Amino acid sequence: MGKNCRKDKAIPPPQLPPEVREEEIEFSDEDVKYVEENKDYARFVSRIDTTAINRQCVGEAKTVEDKYEEERSKKKVQQEEKESNEIQVDPVDVLPVKTLDGKLHFRTVTKKSKLAEADPEEAEEDVLEDEHILNKSQRRAKAKKSKKEAKKQETEVPEEIIQEEETPQAAVLAEVKEELSAEESFENKKNRLAELGMLLLSDPEANIRSLKEMLDISKDENAKIVKLCLLSVLAVFKDIIPGYRIRLPTDKELEMKVSKEVKKTRFYESTLLKAYKSYLQKLMAFERQSVYNQVANRCICTLLDAKPHFNFRDNLLTAVVRNISSPDEVVRRLCCSTIRSLFSNEGKHGGELTVQAVRLIADQVKSQNCQLHPNSIEVFMSIRFDEDIGKRDREEANKKKFKKNDKRNNQEEQNQAQENERKKSKREMMSKIRDEVNADYRGVTFEPDAMERRKMQTETLSAVFETYFRILRKTMFSVGESSTEEDTTLNPGAFGPHPLLAPCLDGLGKFTQQLDLDYIGDLMNYLKKLASSSSVSTTKKKNSKLLTVSERLRCCLVAFKVMRSNLNALNVDLQDFFVQLYNLLLEYRPGRDSGEVLAESLKIMLCDDRHQDMQKAAAFVKRLATFALCFGCAESMSALVTLKNLLQRNVKCRNLLENDAGGGSVSGSIAKYQPYATDPNLSGAFASVLWELNLLTKHYHPAISTMAGTISNMNTSQNQTFLSAVTPQQAFADYSLLKESFEPKSESRKLNNKRKRESGGEGEDVPETDMVELKKKLKENFTILRGIKVDERVRMEFEKKKQSNMAKKKPTKKQSNVEKKKPKSPKSKKKF
């Protein structure tokens, strides 16, 4: 029995190794050499029957117990089929048989198929099928019948579906199914994006091919899914992109034999670069669509800000500069903030992107004819220019030279040749190592040499000043043409007639130290002409091309800043700019013009200017006093601060505080004050008195009233050298409407003596009034007054009618006496 059991047991076939693609199989050089040397021993491999091995190894080995269970299950299935074919006979027709257990057993009859009832030939065929005895002709007939039945089912099913859809309930159900399917698909795609993103972040080298699947989801018709896809791919790229630029291998490099790791890195970098390129192309396409404009620009700006060193940065920069003057405020702010971060963080890209960005902006200003948003030029204010480029390197080189010379002299004196050679070798080795380390550090940090940095800085400066002078020239041309009789050639753009002038002047005021002295003379002439252009046109039509008051004040500020930065090298008279400031104080309007610019001009031109003429200072004191009466708290406070500063510096101007006729003891060259004079030296301010301070002491704001009181109480003989610490700019900012928290106090009225007596005491409080009783009393008084007025109106009408009737009839003596007595009737009506 033991031997038989062992024979019955089947030995399972060995398991095959896992399948490997032919492309992935790699042979070493040693294996190839061994096979070539021993070809005779490898002939048996060609004779192996692989089909037989596959047949044997595919299926699993079956034991005797498994075979027994299969036979048993087959018998059970056959019995169940027989029982299903039998039908119980109706108990009415045939009586049942009762067993010993007491159960009723009905007789059964075998089933007959419907085909057998219809056609006996088909029944015979079914019997043959059950018995598994089908001929070729029978099989063909069966196949034909099955095909016909399938065709009939295909034609019948659509009719039923159409009938169901025709009903209104079916249409509603279809809509609900579509909505549910759309929600499910949205959730599925959303979850799929999250899964792919997590896989890429966990192991990017192994799952780099899933980037293509993520990008394919962006082709969906649903806008929400597209936006989610773009933002998720952006987050993945921000984390995956390496800290260096990818360079694809050349054809020669691809032909060379490399290791597996090199092939793996090449494949990873190539797939990453292709996916990144396709992603950027999709962003550029979505940027033109209004639905995805903001999302696409956000992705472009974040990529350029986070990875400015990576490939295709030029394309990103052009897209950002193109939208720097976009009408959409969100897109414009994103682009401007991105370019500001590029200018401030030059260590990420080595300063190359600053040069490119400035050139692109200059080209855009030129192509758009200076009709851009002011933010496109305000970006230049965040550029940093280093004047000490390469200074440290020069100092270190000079120190090394001096040390070497000193050491050589000492070595010659000591005559130690061997030790010197050893020291030289050590120093040379240390210097080489330092140079290598510095070169590697520069390559990693993208920091160029001092010469390259200086070259890039000069290029950026030239581009910046080129744009600034182009804007000045354009404004000069427009103002010159606007002064003519008819100006129909130029039309103001969407951002105003001169949108870039204010940021241009601010930039010139900041970068005047880097400007060459040869160009400063031309710049001052331009500023004089622009400041002297009146904002009020002489013709009847209003001219929008002329400069505003704030723009003209900016021109004066830039001129003073240029003079301060180049004080020793220039000799220019600034009297024209003082004249313009004196006239602009009358043209200023708080809602139209900028008060901050006015406060800055007062500080720089009047407070910070040490050398001032007495007549000019007196004229400005008088003009500022009148200016403080006409405008709000912020403007009047800045004017009073400037006035106080001028009086503290110029002692003779304090004679304007005296009440004597003719402005005090000092008599000017002009005997009468001329308030509308254009030149401050010809106004004759010493012939007047600062009577405005008396009115300002009664101002509703306590700060202004106290400031006016302190100025009016200044002594003429005392030399007060202590200046006020508050500047006009600070005063304007503190008392502006945005920061002002002043609330005038309501003075409590004093009670009369009668009310105090009625209340019963002087210290008692006034009782609160009851609003309900007050309303009742007011209603009663109103009805009484209304009745009196109605009574008077009716009385007047009655008297007029009476007089008209009496004129027709001649009055008798009795009637005349009665009429004389009638005027006493109103006294009786007064009681009513």
How many distinct beta strands? 4
If you compute it from the alpha carbons, what radius of gyration comes out, rounded to the nearest whole angstrom?
52 Å
Major sheet size, sense and barrel closure: 2 strands, antiparallel
Quote the average pLDDT: 75
Strand percentage lies at under 5%
Indicate the structural class. mainly alpha
> What is the number of helices?
34
- Give unreliable regions as ranges: 1-7, 112-132, 157-166, 485-491, 535-542, 661-665, 746-766, 811-832
Spatial ordering of strands, largest sheet: 1-4
Describe the protein's architecture and organization.
There is one protein chain. Among the domains are: 196-248 and 255-311, no CATH class; 324-389 and 450-477 and 496-511; 516-534 and 547-597; 613-738, no CATH class. It has 832 residues and is mostly helical. The chain is 63% helix and 1% strand. Residues 1-7, 112-132, 157-166, 485-491, 535-542, 661-665, 746-766 and 811-832 have low confidence and may be disordered. Strand 2 and strand 3 (104-105) form a beta hairpin. The strands form two sheets. It has a two-stranded antiparallel ribbon. Strands 2-3 form a two-stranded antiparallel sheet. The N and C termini lie far apart (145 Å). It has 34 helices and four strands. It has helices spanning 2-8, 29-37, 50-58, 64-85, 114-118, 120-130, 136-166, 168-202, 210-217, 223-240, 251-255, 260-287, 293-306, 313-322, 329-344, 352-367, 375-378, 391-414, 417-445, 450-482, 501-510, 517-532, 549-565, 575-587, 595-607, 614-630, 633-649, 692-696, 702-712, 728-734, 753-759, 771-808, 813-821, 825-831; strands at residues 86-88, 97-98, 104-105, 108-110. Helix 13 runs parallel beside helix 15 and helix 16 runs parallel beside helix 20.
